[in-house]
Amino acid sequence: MRRWCYFLVFSLFRKVVIGQDWIGAHPKLRRALSTNVIPGEYIVVLHETATAVDAVQMTSAYRDQTHIQRLYQNGIQGFAAELSAFALIGLLHDDRVEYIEENFVFQTANYQYNPPNWGLDRIDQIDLPLDQEFGYGYTGNGVDIYVFDTGIRLQHQEFGGRAVCSRDVVSSSNACADGNGHGTHVAAICAGTKYGVAKQANVRSVRVCDNDGACTLSNILTGLSHVINRSGKRVVNMSIQGSSSSSLDSAIADARDAGVVVVLAAGNWNVNACNTYSRSPDAISVGAVDALDFKASFSNYGSCVDIWAPGVEIVSAGISSNTATDTKQGTSQAAPFVAGAVAMLMQEGFSGFTDIYTVLRSRAVAGTLNNLRTGSPNLMLYLTQEHISASPSQVRSAAPTSSVAPSVTPTDSMAPSVFPSHRPSIEPTHHPTLFPTLRPSASPSKQPSLKPSYAPSSGPSRTFQPSPFPSHEPSSSPTQFPSKAPTTTPSVPPSSGPTQVPSHEPSASPTQSPSEAPSPAPSPRPSSSPSTTPQPSERTIIKPACTRLNQLCWSDRGCCPGHQCRRRRVFRFMAGNCKAW
């Protein structure tokens, strides 16, 4: 009886332990870089041709070992589920599965302090010092800002009845109650009556984080699927931080294709943002600066940061009452300033990620920020005079000053403007401007320009100014997916003839089927010993390890090549040890 117990334990060990090693090396399985991985939970991404019916059929074979948590039909195709090791192995072999990614936890990105709010004062002027005013004309009216966070205190006076619960992914109550305070604080910066940028935008709470500020990847994907399925002018603010994710990159790209503009907090780890989730080229990544125009010590940086906004010691709404205030800091507070500005641009008439991204960065103040790391764009969020009406209804000053209200007649400025105008001028300028205008003038200029205009590019460029060096080091091996644009230099040309020796070591065992076509010419010289040609395949399958010398075995089949299973003569039906021939 004891021997049979040993047999069962050994069999289980080989299936579970060796099987887990095999799973980890599978090319379809993408391990999360985060340390906050949720054991046993996965995001299964299907090919575009797959449907929800396929997802149900795929898991039906593992009914007792699979629990589907969420089904994704808008954006990425797939589902989030708890999977056993055996179910995971089966799904990795399914041709309908594109890849499987581990589920992990994001965190809200904020710090806590208690001084006055200065962010609104900063984003409506080019230089310091602050002028104690926030002038604006557009209010984001008619635009929906979806706040992906811990929920919102919907009854807070900052929102004036404009805040509603759009989707509560964390709780089945669909109340979006904020037990943390982070979401309410962020939402009021987006669109609060007193502390907000877009003061009349609609606030839509999408609760993807719990009261501890933990936001799972599966919850975020569910929230994006929800917003993609909506209509109207939509902005998404994600004031969270986490490691990079292929499925999240795909979902953000799908949101962009659906007309949604996604704004991301760059993160508070003081690292290169290109190594985090804010690397997405289909979203606007926001870094944080302090009141002296210095990079916040905690803010991430790098070429993947698109723009900077106030993020240190920001006063906004709190959750202790409907009139409460709170002070926080972080890139979580910087991102909603930009989300509010995006809502203003949508009300102004701009639409689509490309147009809004280009206008937002072209209007930003260049060269005023300090202590930025190499590769970071020196662009500070700025609401230009286009955003300030002649008689704004909610400007804090008693009457519009001459600096805020436009003059009756255009000034005859001899110097070119720093930023392009967005409305055609009545008379041509005396000198060419530094940059071409974003929109053509109403009539041609009376005199030709001194220099020819720049040739238009085939498509809108992502960066405001090209960087002198490439953003990333080239990888030593080809990527799994092709790049979006061709490389500037051709790849290394192929050799004129076949190599004399094979590029890789031959496999230990012959392939199961011959190659599809013979080689065009025989090898220049035969090998010293016969070898089997390895069969190329699109994916690598790593088999479980064999039993080595002196280890327990049950038959010759389980021993490594060159060994055989020798049993004790008396107990020929029992286990033996692998010995060399």
TrEMBL record:
Keyword list (alphabetical) reads: Hydrolase, Protease, Serine protease, Signal
GO terms (molecular function) for this protein are: serine-type endopeptidase activity
Q: What class of enzyme is it?
A: hydrolase
Residue ranges annotated as compositionally biased, kind Polar residues, are 440-465
Any coiled-coil ranges, and where? Answer: none
Q: Where is this region: Disordered?
A: 392-539
A GO cellular component entry from the record = extracellular space
Spell out the Pro residues composition-biased ranges. Answer: 517-527
Tell me which residues make up the Inhibitor I9 domain: 42-108
Catalytic site: 149, 182, 332
Task: Name the InterPro entries on file.
Answer: PCSK9_ProteinaseK-like, Peptidase_S8/S53_dom, Peptidase_S8/S53_dom_sf, Peptidase_S8_Ser-AS, Peptidase_S8_subtilisin-like, Peptidase_S8_subtilisin-rel, S8pro/Inhibitor_I9, S8pro/Inhibitor_I9_sf
Leader sequence segment: 1-19
Residues annotated as domain Peptidase S8/S53: 140-348
Write one Pfam family the protein is assigned to. Inhibitor_I9
* EC numbers for this chain: 3.4.21.62
Sequence ranges of Low complexity compositional bias: 395-411, 470-490, 497-516, 528-539
Write down the chemical reaction(s) this protein catalyses.
Hydrolysis of proteins with broad specificity for peptide bonds, and a preference for a large uncharged residue in P1. Hydrolyzes peptide amides
Task: Write out the GO biological process terms.
Answer: proteolysis
Family, per the entry? Belongs to the peptidase S8 family.
Q: What is this protein called?
A: subtilisin
Q: Which organism is it from?
A: Fistulifera solaris (Oleaginous diatom)
